[in-house]
């Protein structure tokens, strides 16, 4: 699937909210305006002229923009014609994203480790045996030892773990597989948990505006095994990961006691396809890290206040764990995770993290929001990322698992608290959103993602989605529809209005990606296996083109550094942190209804 296959009129292939903005991008060499028509069946619904935007260096093409905001007749089967080209069909209406909110969340059920996946829940053909449960050929995660001494040595003889090894094994069953592999990583699980908890907490804050349904994310809303237990389903899903994170703590009496292991993974990469139950590789715990420990502190504190109405004992356990992790990280403030991709025996993503001040800000944020204690407010004020004003918290490239200061700001700005500096934090979020709106205005494909280098990063779609979360937070803070419109423009890009003309979300749009890098959603390699489930987002264009498949695109304009191929892990992987960002944005979108301003 390439841009050569897509119509030159690029639209959101799902559609546009009735009362929201509506824009398309036309790829054309025409230097002046060209006429366009919006059709539904044989009827011409609207017509006008395009606005030339010149050459877009991120796409490598000349483009015009077409807008049709005034069209508000709900329905499916709309197409846009211009310059001899016809767009893919799309809809106009309300509630276009209700299904995406559910599907993006149910993707997490399919990533569960240590349990059989029920196709009655995930879909026909998606069932599979439990992975890593001490059943041959894999040894399972019931008693995973620490990485042996010497295994963290590079080919050049450098020991990245400074001689660390532990003489113990831990039961680290459960949790989510991180991406297309069987590794489980605390720092990526942390931001994913935070965003799922965050979207639920936001829904509680805005329930009156979000939906007529009293609790659109309540018990029975998702296809998960625990539905019907009286607990909101999104919390059930999150608990699968939280329980695993609690198992990753270094036991008392051991070196680095109380810290959290950075990851558990295979010794070496396994080939594709490979079902988790068939993984033959030994599994090891990697050295604990300050970043992983602060991740647990943050999400355990956040989870504590949200689980409290449903399971007081678990909520108290989480808060106790959060405090202990925060204190342990203070005892070992700079135990950093190295770039273990340089290991001769690499079998996992590195998730190296050389700056933990942002993680510390985040952990203090969630502990303060849950407890209101002055201790944590003081730590917030002392943090280098600060509470407001000019700060590296917000990056043009967007935030991610490795840059969480912006997420901490969003939480402080939107979750009610008595923090004296809250107004300052809220202003900083709105200022960051204003910068994104200004950046978006320069992009003829309508997306607020403009890296300062001009190069798209690994997981550019996830970074874009996190920029949309900043804009959505500004909309919540101010009520200004400019920020809502900017979110919708970014979603247009994800769902088809882009240089390659694809929807980056499986199951949504005429030309959706279906071959994300995954060892078990590997239909491209084995027809007996499924594609990724509906609601799975692709990582998206990556200017580095780091894998053997996308390497052929190296040097291409940034937006065109993409191919829907299972081997293209650098541009087309699936990961829990990108899907959590999608789920957060989809939940916000579902709350907009038809896009009309509240009365």
From TrEMBL:
Region (Disordered): 527-548
Keyword terms, alphabetized: Carbohydrate metabolism, Cellulose degradation, Glycosidase, Hydrolase, Polysaccharide degradation
Domain Glycoside hydrolase family residue range list: 97-585
Organism superkingdom: Bacteria
Keyword hit for Hydrolase: yes
A Pfam family: CelD_N
Name this protein carries in UniProt: Endoglucanase
Species annotation: Cellulomonas biazotea
Lineage of source species: Bacteria, Bacillati, Actinomycetota, Actinomycetes, Micrococcales
């Amino acid at each position: 699937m390439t841009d050569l296959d897509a119509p030159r009129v690029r639209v959101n292939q799902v559609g546009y909210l009735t009362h929201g903005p509506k824009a398309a991008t036309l790829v054309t060499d025409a230097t002046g305006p060209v006429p366009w028509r919006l059709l539904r069946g044989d009827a011409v619904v609207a017509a006008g002229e395009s606005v030339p935007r010149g050459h877009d260096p991120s796409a490598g093409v000349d483009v015009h923009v077409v807008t049709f905001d005034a069209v508000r007749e709900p329905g499916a089967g709309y197409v846009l014609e211009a310059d001899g080209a016809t767009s893919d069909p799309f809809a106009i209406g309300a509630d276009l994203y209700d299904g995406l909110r559910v599907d993006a969340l149910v993707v997490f059920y399919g990533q569960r480790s240590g349990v059989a996946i029920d196709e009655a829940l995930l879909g026909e053909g998606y069932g599979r045996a439990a992975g890593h449960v001490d059943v041959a050929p894999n040894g399972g995660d019931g008693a995973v030892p620490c990485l042996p001494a010497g295994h963290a040595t590079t080919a050049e003889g450098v020991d990245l773990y400074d001689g660390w090894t532990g003489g113990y094994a831990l039961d680290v069953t459960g949790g989510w597989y991180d991406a297309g592999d069987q590794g489980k990583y605390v720092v990526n699980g942390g931001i994913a948990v935070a965003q799922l908890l965050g979207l639920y907490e936001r829904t509680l804050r805005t329930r009156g505006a979000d939906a007529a349904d009293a609790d659109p994310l309540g018990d029975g809303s998702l296809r998960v095994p625990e539905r019907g237990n009286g607990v909101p389903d999104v919390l059930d899903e999150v608990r699968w990961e939280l329980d695993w994170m609690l198992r990753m703590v270094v036991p008392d009496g051991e070196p680095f006691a109380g810290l959290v292991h950075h990851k558990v993974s295979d010794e070496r990469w396994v080939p594709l396809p490979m079902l988790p139950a068939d993984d033959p590789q030994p599994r090891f715990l990697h050295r604990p890290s300050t970043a992983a420990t602060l991740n647990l502190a943050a999400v355990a504190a956040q989870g504590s206040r949200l689980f409290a109405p449903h399971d007081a004992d678990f909520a108290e356990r989480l808060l106790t764990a959060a405090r202990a992790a925060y204190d342990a990280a203070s005892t070992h403030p700079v135990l950093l995770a190295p770039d273990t991709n340089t290991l001769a025996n690499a079998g996992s993503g590195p998730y190296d993290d050389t700056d933990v001040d942002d993680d510390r800000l985040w952990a203090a944020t969630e502990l303060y929001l849950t407890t209101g204690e002055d201790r944590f407010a003081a730590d917030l004020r002392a943090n280098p990322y600060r509470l407001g004003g000019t700060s590296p918290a917000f990056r043009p490239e967007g935030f991610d698992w490795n840059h969480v200061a912006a997420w901490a700001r969003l939480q402080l700005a939107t979750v009610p608290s008595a923090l004296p500096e809250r107004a300052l934090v809220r202003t900083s979020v709105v200022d960051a959103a204003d910068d994104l709106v200004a950046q978006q205005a320069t992009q003829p494909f309508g997306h607020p993602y403009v890296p300062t280098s001009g190069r798209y990063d690994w997981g550019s779609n996830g970074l874009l989605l996190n920029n949309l979360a900043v804009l959505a937070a500004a909309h919540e803070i101010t009520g200004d529809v400019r920020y809502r419109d900017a979110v919708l423009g970014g979603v247009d890009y994800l769902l088809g209005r882009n240089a390659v003309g694809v929807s980056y979300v499986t199951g949504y749009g005429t030309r959706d990606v279906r071959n994300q890098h995954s060892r078990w959603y590997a239909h491209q390699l084995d027809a007996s296996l499924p594609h990724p489930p509906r609601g799975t987002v692709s990582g998206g264009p990556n200017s580095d083109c780091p894998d053997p498949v996308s390497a052929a695109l190296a040097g291409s304009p940034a937006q065109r550094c993409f191919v829907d191929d299972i081997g293209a892990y650098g541009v087309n992987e699936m990961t829990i942190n990108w899907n959590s960002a999608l789920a957060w944005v989809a939940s916000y979108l579902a709350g907009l209804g038809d896009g009309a301003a509240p009365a």
